[in-house]
Design goal:
The complex is a heterodimer of chains A (about 150) and B (about 500). With about 150 residues, chain A is of the alpha+beta class. Chain A has 2 helices and 6 strands; from the N terminus they run αββαββββ. Chain B is α/β, with parallel strands linked by helices and about 500 residues long. Classes of the chains: A alpha+beta (about 150), B alpha/beta (about 500).
């Protein structure tokens, strides 16, 4: 995995490893529950690195302490959006933290065309860079079609 | 408390005003700088000094002299003291204990009233506490070992411009340590060639690349050329991976005006982070922290030069004090040691530095060299950086020692990879991710680490090559700065 010719998105904790099996995902969820994090499922077809807000698939599961329950939500999201990026997020509400503690991708579209770099020359040798997703030219709902 | 007969009691403070202020020389303990009954206020700053008095100098008198010479005293009585509420301004040494197992060395606790310090000024605090007393003849050696800074003073500082939490949110990276590398060779690359190294490292899987501390603007590479080529590399790598990437552009320069010029160019090119060296000084550090806060910029602090005064136990300033001052002055990243790499750092002592950076409330922890509780009053946290002679084969040790909130930098360990820089980066990223995954799954990574790495190496050739090249490298030297309260000697291998 050196030149990443397929444009695989490497966001999240485990993108350089072989895709996690459901059993491995469940182990990560259990670890988060033991730390008293709240799990959430999010999906998107706009994986631009500056897109902070993926769509929430339901609310964060603050009162769900059971890995199997969380996995059911994940399965439901995969069934609904099979060609979207889906990630699992764990929230830590401890004072002084109050942010995401774990985040990893659990579903990808079959083909990931990736991004290109648009260069706009400005003054001197300065360039303004834009990172442009190949799929972003299509309308939402039309992207990552097989 | 000690058993030596001279280290007890509130000896000799002269309370009769006429006697106290007649011209002439008195001992410091007579002038009010030693008070064994003093109870420090919540608003006092407390310093712990490790002092080695000259032969024949009484340890209490030495402690009182430290208190005096770091507050109001001079070597002879002055009548002008009586124009002031002089007791408020005098620092009070209130406790002296011999250092375990080091004859002739003593710990001295000294309390300073809040009024002595200018709000929000580390330059003032350091000038006050270490500006005078360390050259004092009656002391053979002195070290500022630790400091308790009152909440009342902490709240006068803005602290890190971004902080650990917001940094992760800006990078959109959670749940694992961050990875970096310093571009090597340290010196000599031209801007274009430098950018190549940056591109390869980031593309291969590192989160950050880094200028070295002495890369500023030399004949072989002007700073503008470096910034232009590096930002091209950063953006190319970001597009290739879909991740936010950064490279610490070193803006250290001869004058503040030059630093602002370089910082502004970095911002205009879209860099998320700039870097400064400790040698710019406390005043410049606070100015740059303010600039970074106003310009949404992360600030990386390289602790260049600290080893000249932090490393010997008997004399200088402990790095834990420097780290506390830097958190107040404001930086987002701080090099704090690797324990297992090529540079000085006993594992427990190094963990103490990490605590100072990352805690909301640091608790006293003598084996880690932390002598005081320190309430950080919700001041932002600093991301510690482990950098220097570490490689993928040590990933389990590093993760076990330092946890997730750390940046691990593998300069040689990326660029020296036999199959190239991208392969080096891939090896480090795969080693990291598989170790985090294994730790979360409940595996005992300290003992199973090598096996976990070998298993990952089966699907990752770059990792296999890295382990084959560096698997046996360790840096096994006796640490010069270990805790006086360690239960057993700790090995740094």
């Amino acid at each position: 995995m050196m030149t990443n010719p397929t444009g695989r998105l490497t966001q999240g904790q485990f993108s350089f490893l072989p895709d996690l099996t459901d059993a491995e995902i469940a182990l990560q969820i259990e670890y988060g529950l033991k730390q008293e994090y709240a799990w959430a499922v999010e999906y998107t077809d706009d994986p631009h690195p500056r897109n902070t807000y993926w769509e929430m698939f339901g609310m964060p599961m603050f009162d769900l302490n059971d890995a199997a329950g969380v996995m059911l939500e994940l399965k439901s999201c995969r069934d609904t959006f099979p060609q979207h990026y889906i990630r699992m997020l764990a929230f830590d509400s401890t004072r002084g933290v109050e942010t995401i503690a774990m985040s990893f991708i659990v579903n990808r579209p079959a083909v990931e065309p990736g991004f290109s770099l648009v260069r706009q020359e400005t003054n001197g040798r300065t360039i303004r860079y834009t990172i442009r997703g190949h799929e972003a030219d299509r309308a939402e709902g039309e992207r990552y079609r097989k | 408390m000690a058993t030596a007969p001279e280290i007890v009691g509130n000896g000799n403070q002269i309370t009769d005003k006429k006697k106290r202020y007649s011209a002439g020389v008195l001992k410091y303990r007579q002038m009010g700088y030693w008070d064994a009954d003093y109870v420090p206020k919540e608003t006092d700053t407390i310093c712990l000094f490790r002092i080695t008095p000259q032969e024949g100098v009484d340890p209490i008198e030495a402690a009182a002299a430290v208190a005096g010479e770091s507050s109001t005293a001079t070597w002879t009585v002055v009548w002008t003291d009586r124009l002031t509420a002089c007791d408020s301004y005098r620092a009070k040494a209130f406790k002296v204990e011999p250092v375990p197992n080091i004859p002739g060395q003593y710990f001295a606790w000294v309390a300073y009233d809040l009024i002595l310090f200018e709000e929000g000024s580390i330059a003032n605090m350091t000038a006050s506490l270490i500006g005078n007393v360390f050259s004092f003849k009656p002391l053979k050696a002195a070290r500022l070992e630790d400091i308790r800074i009152p909440v009342a003073y902490v709240k006068t500082f803005k602290g890190p411009p971004t902080g650990l939490v917001v940094e992760r949110e800006r990078l959109d990276k959670f749940g694992r340590p961050l990875l970096g590398a310093t571009t090597k060779p340290k010196l000599g690359l031209s801007g274009r060639n430098y950018g190549r190294v940056v591109y390869e490292g980031l593309k291969g899987g590192l989160d950050f690349m880094k200028d070295d501390e002495n890369i500023n603007s030399q004949p072989f590479m002007h700073w503008r050329d470096r910034f232009l080529y590096v930002m091209d590399a950063v953006n190319k790598a970001s597009a290739a991976t879909g991740e936010v990437k950064g490279s610490y552009l070193n803006i250290t320069a001869a004058t503040m005006e030059d630093m602002y010029e370089r910082a502004e160019f970095a911002r205009d090119l879209g860099s998320i982070i700039v870097m400064v060296d400790l040698v710019i000084g406390w005043t410049a550090i606070q100015s740059m922290a303010n600039w970074c806060r106003k310009n949404d910029m992360l600030m990386h602090m390289h602790r260049a030069g600290h080893g000249t005064y932090t490393r010997q136990k008997n004399h200088g300033v402990s790095f834990r004090v420097i780290a506390k001052w830097l958190r107040l002055a404001g930086c987002d990243h701080l090099h704090t040691g690797t324990a297992v790499g090529k540079l000085e750092g006993d594992p427990l002592t190094v963990q103490g530095y990490y605590n100072v950076c990352r805690d909301s409330y640091t608790k006293q922890d003598l084996p880690r060299g932390l002598f005081f509780d320190q309430d950080w009053a919700d001041l932002k946290k600093v991301m510690p950086v482990a950098s220097g002679g570490i490689h993928a084969g040590q990933m389990h040790q590093l993760l076990d020692l330092f946890g997730d909130d750390v940046i691990m930098q593998f300069g040689g360990g990326t660029i020296g990879h036999p199959a190239g820089i991208q392969a080096g980066a891939v090896a480090n990223r795969v080693a990291l991710e598989c170790m985090v995954k294994a730790r979360n799954e409940g595996k005992d990574i300290l003992n199973e680490g090598p096996a976990i790495l070998q298993k990952a190496a089966q699907f990752c050739t770059p990792l296999k090559q890295a382990l084959d090249t560096w698997g046996d490298i360790t840096f096994n030297y006796t640490s010069t700065d270990t805790s006086d309260y360690a239960v057993t000697p700790t090995a740094s291998n």
